[in-house]
Structure formats: C-alpha cells, structure tokens
UniProtKB/TrEMBL annotation:
This is Tetratricopeptide repeat protein. The keyword Disulfide bond does not apply. PROSITE patterns: PROKAR_LIPOPROTEIN (PS51257), TPR (PS50005). Keywords: TPR repeat. SMART domains: TPR. TPR repeats lie at residues 235-268. It comes from the Bacteria. InterPro entries: TPR-like_helical_dom_sf, TPR_rpt.
C-alpha cells in the first residue's frame, strides 16, 4: 500500500511538472507573439514615415498579400501609394480600406484626399458628404475648402478655411492655400494679408513669399516687403515682381527689377538675364 501511495505521488509530481512546463511554454509563446506584434507595429510606422516611398509600397504590398484581411496593412499600402505619388493606385487601395468592415471616418477623409490628388473632385466631394458633420478635423475642413474653391463657392470656401486654421497649430500651409484662393478671385488685398500671415507662421515657406509678391504686383506695389529671405530668395522675388510689372504693362519698372534680380543673385541668374535682354531688345527695336 505504501508503495502504491509513493508511486501515485511520484506520478502526480511528474504530471504537475509537465503541466507547469506546458503552462510556461504557452506563456512564453504568448509573450513572443506580443513582442512580434509590437515589433511589426514599430516597423509599419517606420515604413510609413522614414522609409523610401517605393520601398514602403513594396513592403505593404507583400504584407497585404500575406494577410489580406488586416486593415492596418491596407491603410499602410494606401498611404504609401499616396506618398509615392501614385494616385491612381492609391485610390484603388483606399477604396478597399473604406469598404472594410473595420473602416472609420478618418479613412473616408484620406480617401477623399487621394481622389483629389487623382483629379476626381466630384467623387471626393461625394465621399466627404458621407462623413458626419460631427467629425471635425483639420484635414477634413482643408479638403472641404479645396473642393468649395474648385466649385467657386467662395463663401463656403472661406468658412472651411477659417475652421481649418482654427484646428491646427501649424496653419501656414492652409493660409497659403486660402490666400491663393483669394488671389484667383481677384481679392489681391485679402490675398496679401493671408500670405503675410502664412510667412509669419512659417518663415521658410517660399511659396507663400512668392505668392505675396504676385498679390502685391497685381496691385502695382513694386517694392519688396520686409520679410525674411535669403539672397537667392530675394533675387527670385525681384524676378517675380518684374514679371508682374511686365504683365501690368510697366516695362520700365520691370527692367529695373530684372537688373536688381541679376545683381542680387549670388550666382548667374539665367532667367532674369534673359528677360532683361528681351525687354531691352524690344525697346531698341
């Protein structure tokens, strides 16, 4: 009897040891799976932001082919295609994302962005109409403003631009877009104000500086405003102002501006030199 009890205890101990080993193995497996998920998530983030756009596209294409039901991988592919300037493919990829059962409102906004990049303005407008008005983000209103601009619905555009500016801590880009909208409508003073504010928010935004000169030139303001600029930028702005003067018929002023551009540029300024020579030849002829 004693032998039987000892044997049973021994068997019990062995069984318990086996259970503990099994439990430990399962815990290790789960831990490793969690680590793999974290590593994969980190890699996905790196591919979306830091990797070469073409490399990111290849990575997410392979990942989605292996796990086609994963919406995060589908999003990664769609975003990478936009980043790689492949809008037609991006539109198709975003369509799959918004059709997914786990799609969210942000996906519709990103899809609308891809449609605009692919020059499909009506589809983009229809997609944003599916987003409830309670979903308020900077990107949503920036796209709404762009679509209103394309439809020449100026009051709506101004309202959307104003809302977008209030929803971001970096408004320079949208202010520049808003200013260009004003410029296209012929509201040169309003455009000048917005471009100036854009530059105040981001002194490196050369597009806003050049647009500011266009707005001033349209008002026959032929002096450079006081804005931060490099020597090369200053020469380019003088050249833009000279072109504006030509458009206004002020050729004498334009010649002076082209000369200033040539003298200001730290290297040879071919475009300004050629424009100056063309004006001087017209005068001599």
């Amino acid at each position: 009897m004693r032998y039987i009890l000892l044997s049973m205890c021994a068997l019990g101990a062995m069984a318990l040891s086996g259970c503990e080993e099994k439990i430990n193995t399962e815990e290790v497996d789960r831990a490793l799976q969690d680590i793999n998920v974290v590593d994969e998530t980190n890699l996905n983030d790196v591919m979306l932001v830091a990797a070469d756009a073409g490399e990111a596209v290849n990575y997410f294409k392979k990942a989605t082919s292996q796990q086609p039901d994963r919406i995060d991988l589908q999003r990664g592919l769609a975003k990478s295609l936009v980043r790689a300037s492949r809008p037609t493919e991006a539109v198709a990829a975003w369509q799959k994302v918004v059709d997914h059962k786990d799609s969210v409102e942000e996906d519709k906004v990103d899809f609308a962005d891809a449609l605009i990049r692919n020059n499909e303005w009506d589809r983009a407008d229809a997609m944003l109409d599916q987003v409830p008005p309670t979903y308020e983000t900077f990107k949503r209103y920036r796209l709404e403003a762009m679509i209103a601009d394309s439809n020449k619905e100026w009051k709506k555009a101004d309202s959307f631009y104003e809302t977008a500016v209030g929803l971001t801590t970096r408004p320079a880009g949208v202010m520049n877009n808003w200013g260009y909208s004003k410029l296209s409508r012929g509201d040169f003073a309003g455009a000048e104000r917005l471009f100036t504010e854009a530059i105040q928010n981001d002194q490196s935004l050369f597009t806003a500086k050049n647009n500011l000169i266009l707005a001033r030139g349209a008002q026959k303001k032929y002096s450079l405003p006081v804005i931060p600029s490099t020597q090369t930028e200053r020469a380019q702005l003088l050249y833009t102002l000279g072109l504006s003067a030509v458009k206004q018929g002020d050729t004498t002023i334009a010649k002076g501006l082209f000369r200033d551009a040539v003298e200001t540029h730290p290297q040879h300024f071919e475009e300004a030199s050629r424009s100056l020579a063309a004006l001087e030849d017209n005068v001599s002829n």
